[in-house]
Design goal:
By secondary structure, the chain is α+β, with helices and mostly antiparallel strands. The chain has helices spanning 5-19, 119-122, 186-207, and strands spanning 24-29, 33-41, 44-51, 60-66, 77-80, 90-91, 95-100, 109-115. The strands form two sheets. Strands 1-2-3-8-5 form a five-stranded antiparallel sheet, covered by helices on one side. A three-stranded antiparallel sheet has the order 4-7-6, with no helix packed on it.
Length: 208
């Protein structure tokens, strides 16, 4: 018994996927339709629909694909095997859902070619949370007032001057007489006498 075209297609898809070490996912959809998902390279997927019926199928729903990374919805681009755009029905964080509106021939197949990028490849990555820096008080504006000048504390021995309002009868009092300078202390006389004695001793020594 020779295998049918659908079986041959499935075998070829499996062989090609195994040769390229691409991930494979097979899902049975409603209406006797099989969905075989392959990924020849990162970010590129082939969703093959295999019609096991002996009649045409013109509408297939529930064609979903689950990814292992967050999806950037703006990067989704999909076309069918007739190069017609295929719009996703729903886009989740890591999943996309399609419907196929083209004709699947009896025991034939159709394809959806999908390219999608991860969110961190096109979007701005969110930086890790950091602890808030310690708050600093806002800078204060410099004061325009001149600094206050404080008077030095009064000396303990000094007394503040008081206004002198006394009046004197017969004129102002006489000033105190200046004292003559004190005589030189007696130590100078002693030093002079000692010098004379030393000179006398030197003279006697020279005579001897």
């Amino acid at each position: 018994m020779r295998p049918g075209p659908a079986a041959l297609l499935a075998i070829l898809l499996l062989a090609a996927a195994a040769a390229s070490a691409a991930p494979i996912e097979r899902t049975e959809l409603a209406g006797n339709i099989s969905l075989i998902t392959t990924s020849p390279e990162a970010g590129y997927y082939i969703l093959a629909l295999v019609n096991h019926n002996d009649r045409n199928v013109t509408f297939v729903e529930g064609i979903g694909i689950n990814l292992s990374y967050p999806i950037d919805p703006a990067s989704i681009h999909a076309v069918d095997n007739y190069n017609r755009p295929v719009e996703p029905v729903a886009v989740g964080e890591r999943s996309i859902l399609f419907t196929y509106n083209s004709t699947l021939p009896p025991l034939g197949y159709g394809k959806i070619f999908l390219s999608v990028k991860a969110l961190q490849e096109t979007g701005t990555p969110v930086p890790p949370a950091r602890s808030a820096p310690p708050s600093t008080p806002p800078p204060t504006a410099p004061s325009t007032e001149p600094p206050a000048v404080t008077a030095p504390p009064p000396s303990p021995t000094s007394t503040p001057l008081q206004p002198h309002n006394e009046t004197y009868e017969g004129g102002p009092p006489a000033l105190a007489e200046e004292k003559p300078p004190a005589e030189e202390p007696a130590s100078w006389l002693l030093l002079s006498a000692m010098g004379a004695v030393i000179l006398l001793l030197l003279a006697l020594a020279l005579r001897l």
